[in-house]
């Protein structure tokens, strides 16, 4: 099965659930035997639960981590982080335009743009080169205004209350 028409979706905002929403979409697509690739920008380390699930759902779901373990310094990103993000963007272009995948998710690419790891112009070029039958999802905080303008759907996750503020750390199977 192939999509008749692929659109561009953006999940952004300060609330929890952007990656989770994209994984829900991936699960729905896999259920219809569509091929899905998620490229995770700035997410080295793990393994995360979604990576373990992807192994079980192969060959329909592929998740590729890029980045180093730990957090990127948003005020002064290391050159290594910039280099890894550039490699991830080149890989994203290959996966979006290569004809193998129906749905491509660029997890945390919005944050990569806002931190200066990836130029927004390169992201816009990727959006413009997307084949008509490929669905493309971009997640992460601080989606650039031009990316929002280019998208067909934009959802903003708004934090109202979060248990992290009460001292609850990331939990295996829920956040990682």
Descriptive overview:
With 176 residues, the chain is α/β, with parallel strands linked by helices. It is built from six helices and six strands. The protein has a six-stranded parallel sheet, with helices on both faces. The longest helix has 19 residues, at 79-97. 35% of the residues are buried. One of its GO terms (molecular function) is corrinoid adenosyltransferase activity. It comes from Geomonas diazotrophica. This is Cob(I)yrinic acid a,c-diamide adenosyltransferase. It holds the Pfam family CobA_CobO_BtuR.
SSE layout and pairing:
Blueprint: E1 8-12, H1 18-31, E2 36-40, H2 49-57, E3 61-65, H3 79-97, E4 103-107, H4 109-114, H5 120-129, E5 135-139, H6 145-150, E6 153-156
Parallel strand pairs: 1-5, 1-6, 2-3, 2-4, 4-5
Helix pairs in contact: 3-5
EC number: 2.5.1.17
InterPro entries: CblAdoTrfase_CobA
Enzyme class: transferase
Outline of the structure:
The chain has helices at residues 18-31, 49-57, 79-97, 109-114, 120-129, 145-150; strands at residues 8-12, 36-40, 61-65, 103-107, 135-139, 153-156.
């Amino acid at each position: 099965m192939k999509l008749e028409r692929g659109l561009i979706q953006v999940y952004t905002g300060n609330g929890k659930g952007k990656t989770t929403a994209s994984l829900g979409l991936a699960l729905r697509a896999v259920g219809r035997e569509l091929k899905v690739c998620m490229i995770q920008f700035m997410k080295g380390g793990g393994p995360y639960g979604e990576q373990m699930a992807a192994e079980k759902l192969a060959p329909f779901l592929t998740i590729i981590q890029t980045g180093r373990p730990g957090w990127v310094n948003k005020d002064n990103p290391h050159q290594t982080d910039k280099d890894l993000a550039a490699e991830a963007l080149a890989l994203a272009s290959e996966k979006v335009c290569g004809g193998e995948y129906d749905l491509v998710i660029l997890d945390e690419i919005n944050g990569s743009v806002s931190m200066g790891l990836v130029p927004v112009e390169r992201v816009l070029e990727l959006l413009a080169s997307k084949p008509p039958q490929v669905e493309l999802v971009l997640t992460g905080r601080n989606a650039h205004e031009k990316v929002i303008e280019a998208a067909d759907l934009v959802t903003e996750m708004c934090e109202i209350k979060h248990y992290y503020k009460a001292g609850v750390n990331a939990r295996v199977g829920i956040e990682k």
